[in-house]
């Protein structure tokens, strides 16, 4: 026995809107077709007749009649929900994979891969990959960290960050450090240049031709660098570098130097030199906190851009390359701006400490 469709009776407002939609040339075609279904249904056409006239299937007509009876006009504006594919992996299995990733390791490795996890859980590796992506899990990556144990950590941090964010009047703030033991490495064969579809290539073996130490002072006001290369990095070389800074800066300005806790910077002879040059003021970063010294970022730049992939026949050539880079940098310097407050830094440190405590 055939089913009789429930009658559709429109209010005056609904009839006006349905008629406008049914003849509209601006609305999406799907909305116009749905309106025509309801328009004809309200005129007592049977579903099979509506389907024939509008060129659509009988189930489609019944679907939109039922949607209108349940939701009225708003039901025609949104697409009908479609039944989703039944997931092949249960929520319980997903949680088992997430927990295993976070709290266990495979018996023969330090971390899980998609294939080892898939084998352990009895599923496909593509499924593991999809779950890890969904929960932002990356067991193949690792980052380094170190928490300072400096008893005066907060005091030193306030001092250095204060110089960055609010430098004293009539003064220059310099970030000073040494990049020691830079090796003059010469590749055994010339570099093979970059080609389409193929990266530049260099030999894995090299000859060592000695080392140099780069002393650098990054001016936080204009981004320029005072630099010099010396064979060693003892207190004698550091005093020579302080003298270089002294000669290259206006004598009427105070100089605030941000340095690390390397013994050379605190040597008694360095202290005597500083007493004879009262415009120099030393500010020590907390121990194990090289990230506070902005010159480290500049060191990373010169390493990446000029040293790491270079090939040098001798130390003299290496030093010449470094000096050329400094000269080029100073012609178009980039000012490094510190933005983090002490409070935001301490908040991140607290989060890391809390995380470490939960692991014990």
Structure description:
A hairpin with a 5-residue loop joins strand 2 and strand 3. This protein is α/β, with parallel strands linked by helices. The longest helix has 17 residues, at 315-331. It has 14 helices and 5 strands.
What descriptors fit this protein?
alpha/beta; 13% strand
Q: Given the helix and strand composition, which structural class is it? A: alpha/beta
Largest β-sheet summary: 5 strands, mixed
Number of helices: 14
Shape summary = elongated
Using DSSP, what is the number of strands?
A: 5
Report low-confidence residues grouped into runs of 5 or more.
Answer: none
The rounded Rg comes to 36 Å
How are strands sequenced across the largest beta sheet? 3-2-1-4-5
N-C termini distance: 71 Å
Residue-averaged pLDDT: 87
User: Which oligomerization state do the chains in this entry correspond to?
Assistant: single chain
Secondary-structure element string: HHHHHHHHHEEEHEHEHHH
Quote the beta fraction: 5-15%
Percent in helix: 40-55%
Summarize the structure.
This protein is about 45% helix and about 15% strand. It has about 350 residues and is an alpha/beta fold. A hairpin with a 5-residue loop joins strand 2 and strand 3 (about 225-230).
């Amino acid at each position: 026995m055939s089913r009789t469709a429930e009658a559709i009776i429109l209010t005056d407002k609904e009839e006006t809107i349905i008629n406008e939609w049914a003849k509209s040339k601006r609305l999406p075609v799907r909305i116009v077709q749905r309106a025509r279904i309801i328009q004809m249904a309200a005129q007592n056409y049977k579903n099979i007749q509506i389907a024939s006239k509008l060129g659509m299937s009988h189930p489609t007509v019944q679907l939109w009649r039922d949607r209108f009876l349940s939701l009225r006009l708003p039901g025609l504006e949104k697409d009908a929900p479609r039944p989703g594919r039944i997931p092949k992996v249960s929520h319980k299995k997903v949680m088992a994979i997430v927990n295993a990733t976070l709290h266990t390791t495979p018996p023969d490795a330090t971390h899980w891969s998609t294939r080892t996890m898939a084998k352990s859980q009895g599923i496909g590796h593509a499924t593991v990959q999809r779950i890890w992506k969904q929960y932002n899990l990356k067991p193949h990556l690792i980052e380094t960290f170190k928490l300072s144990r400096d008893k005066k950590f907060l005091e030193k941090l306030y001092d250095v960050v204060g110089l960055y964010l609010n430098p004293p009047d009539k003064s220059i703030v310099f970030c000073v450090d040494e990049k020691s033991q830079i090796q003059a490495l010469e590749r055994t064969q010339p570099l093979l240049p970059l080609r389409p579809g193929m990266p530049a290539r260099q030999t894995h073996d090299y000859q060592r031709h000695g080392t140099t130490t780069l002393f650098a002072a990054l001016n936080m006001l204009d981004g320029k660098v005072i630099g010099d290369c010396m064979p060693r990095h003892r207190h004698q070389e550091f005093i020579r570098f302080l003298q270089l800074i002294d000669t290259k800066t206006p004598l009427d300005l105070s100089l605030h130097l941000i340095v690390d806790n390397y013994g050379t910077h605190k040597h008694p002879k360095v202290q005597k030199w500083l007493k004879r040059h009262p415009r120099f003021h030393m500010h020590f970063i907390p121990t194990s906190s090289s990230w506070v010294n902005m010159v480290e970022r500049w060191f990373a730049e010169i390493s990446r851009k000029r040293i790491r992939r270079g090939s040098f026949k001798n130390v003299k050539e290496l030093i010449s390359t470094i000096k050329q880079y400094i000269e080029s940098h100073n012609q178009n310097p980039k000012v490094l701006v510190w933005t983090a407050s002490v409070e935001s830094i301490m908040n991140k440190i607290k989060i890391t400490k809390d995380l470490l405590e939960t692991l014990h």
